[in-house]
Amino acid sequence: MRTPTPWLALLLAASAHAKPADKPARVDVEQDPYGGFTITQKVKVPSDVRAAYEAGVRQLEEGHAQPAISLLSQVTTKAPALTAAHIDLGIASATSRTRRRASGARWS
User: Fold this and answer.
1) What is the greatest pairwise CA distance in the chain?
2) Total of domains in the chain
3) Which residue would you say has higher pLDDT here, 43 or 72?
């Protein structure tokens, strides 16, 4: 069962880093009956940002955390109000750390 609590912390941390001039877009959160949730946000972004976001999500879904981190970092820099990009970046980062630990890699 997934819990939204860690993602709430990520959302709050991400919003704390937004530029004061950025007006945060409305975020709707809908809980599903299985313990998960869906976040919906209407945000206008340039086509290159949308393409980078979609590519980053695709990389994440295919299990390629490092390319996903690179793409989603670009997205969060160019569109800091885009909540989904911050959440997906957090998931990619956590996935990458988990894989490093599983492979025995050392943290520096």
Assistant:
1) 43
2) 1
3) 72
pLDDT above 90 as % of the chain: 49
> What is the spatial distance between Cα 99 and Cα 93, in angstroms, rounded to a whole number?
10
d(CA 93, CA 70): 10
Residue 5, domain member (yes or no): no
Lowest mean pLDDT among 6-15, 48-57, 62-71: 6-15
The SS3 call for residue 82 is: coil
CA-to-CA separations, 97 to 43, 65, 66, 73, in angstroms, rounded:
30, 9, 10, 16
Tell me, yes or no, whether 3 lies in a domain.
Answer: no
Mean pLDDT check: name the lowest of 3-7, 77-81, 92-96.
3-7
Q: Produce one character per residue of 4-40: b if its CB has 16 or more CB atoms within 10 Å, e if not.
A: eeebeebbeebeeeeeeeeeeeeeeeeeeeeeeeeee
